[in-house]
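Thread: quick sanity check before group meeting

JM: Hey all, I'm pulling together slides for Thursday and realized we never actually wrote out the predicted structure for the chain we discussed last week. Dropping the sequence here so it's in one place. If anyone has concerns about the input, flag it before I start.
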Amino acid sequence: MSRPRLIALLLAFITLAVFLPVGSFSFVNFDDNDYVTDNPFVKSGLTATDIRWAFTAFHAGNWHPLTWLSHMLDCDLFGLNAGGHHLVNALFHATNAALLFLLLWRLTRQLSAAAFIAALFAWHPLHVESVAWISERKDVLSTCFALLALLSYVKYAERSRVPASPSRLPYALSLVFFACSLMAKPMAVTLPCLLLLLDFWPLNRIPGPAFRLRDLRRPLLEKIPFFLLTTASCVITFIVQNRSEAVVSLSTMTLHYRLENAPVAAVNYLFKLFWPVNLNVFYPLPDRIPALSAALSAALLVGISVAAWHWRATKPYLLTGWLWFLGTLVPVIGLVQVGGQAMADRYTYIPSIGFFLALVFLARDFAIRLQTPKIIARGLMVLSCTACILATENQLSFWRNGEVLFRRALAMNPANDIALVNLGVALQAQNRTEEALVAYRQAERLASNRYQIHGNIGNLLSLLGRHEEALQEYGAALALRPQSSLIRDSYGTELIALGRYPEALPQFQEAAQRDPALADPHLQAGKVLFMQGLDAEGIKEFQTALRLDPDNYQTLATVAHYLAASDNPAIRDGRNALPLALKANIVSHQNQPVVFDILGMALAENGDFTNAITCAQNALELATTVQLKHTEQIRVRLELYRQNLPWRESFRATNAPVKN
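JM (edit): ok, ran it. Output follows.
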């Protein structure tokens, strides 16, 4: 085996060893639910339906079909065992380290420098977020394809110097890998500019430093297909994120504020690459940015840029490395603001390569000029890598689970309302409801204008049975965000819990009108219509809910319940109830007592009392295990089935008290 390949394998092996602890980590309640744990398409694995969804869905504010496919494959391989998902991220990161080394070695033929840059990239603590966060699969996957695109392009560039040598296949592969990178995460949209930078140095396809415009003609023409892919990706990304309301409007965050924040964030990234301390999963945007801070940051960036341009003839790596760093930050620097963060560690994953490239080659030049002994130079390299590994191991420990992660975020910044909300979600998942409510209330005091916080408090209060208080919180959320269909749907559900049925129905109707793709308002409206004795209208709403969300076990089970057990013979339909209940049981992985109970009702309605008894017994056993209420009702149904009698119930609530 050649020495470069051996080094690449060694880099990958050490990187995997460094990140091996993630195999024991949990999912975190920060996008992991959207991407995996609560995503029915991902959880069911690679099926034809799910693959089609991956390429057509704009879920989680992104279009990245290859990322969805990778998560689906993980679920096929590991189910919801978080350790397997984490280790796949680590494998991609280890692969990226090896690919980066091979790329730099092929570009520069400097073995030690290439290995050192790849090691810094692989073991720097700023990259823990991209690897230890399952939802950032898109980052490591996109970068893997981007590095393959760069390697293919370098091969094409080398062959293009030999007129008789065929060179189109590597060029085509580079385009394909670039498209794959964009379909994993649009972060790589600046890759065509990276190719031009590599044309300048170290490929030397653009003569410098005094190149003429005509010298750029061929390199630019070669990049046209790449720029077309970039344009398409930018348009799709903007449409998707704007549709999902992820893009912050200029009325909310002014252009002046963004122009101040951008240089400050870039300098902060530089500082953290040098001295990675106080790393945080979420950096809140400050209320204001001091003008002096913005001015000094901008001056520093301009100064480095001028120096890199000045030394482009003697130190061309400075210009390539610096513009690599600065240019690849442009999509995430906040000029188009997505989300509420001032910056994010994950955004340095690709830009840091340019920084390390410039830094290492500059240090190499100084070492040669000062005639530094090799043993000292190598000792400093080993020391730097060791420091990175130790810092990475420390940073990794904060990603064990959601509670640890957000307690760490609050230790860095106690006024971080996003961290408080997510800490509350983590505590609520552990049934530590009172602690969760305290965290939500603290977040509410910090940011009472965030409708999501009121929504979270409303959800928890509803769970605790404090429906009047929950209704107030949902009302506060709606006052801030009247167009939120989800909040309006929850508001209507609380009205049902309080017996205020006439008031609830308009809420569901408006929620359905505002978001025609949302199924739950139709489901809840159907329940209200049944309560009011309007069974036929209720069935129509149920049918709409099933059409919109045919794979939701709760929707399936609810409709099956009404069809199987209604005391209205005109509505009762056991033949249609049974397939719905069977599907609900399969989709819910046969572990939901309520679904087993409803399946028993459907079987009994169809005269299959033997299996109805089995289902009722399963429901009773599961309900007892999870301490579910209403187990006595299941026992009553079980006795009926033993007497070969189906279950009947009225869904009307005309005699229930109506509260004002």
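AS: nice. The beta strands are 283-284, 341-343. The CA atoms of residues 268 and 343 lie 9 Å apart.
JM: adding both to the slides.
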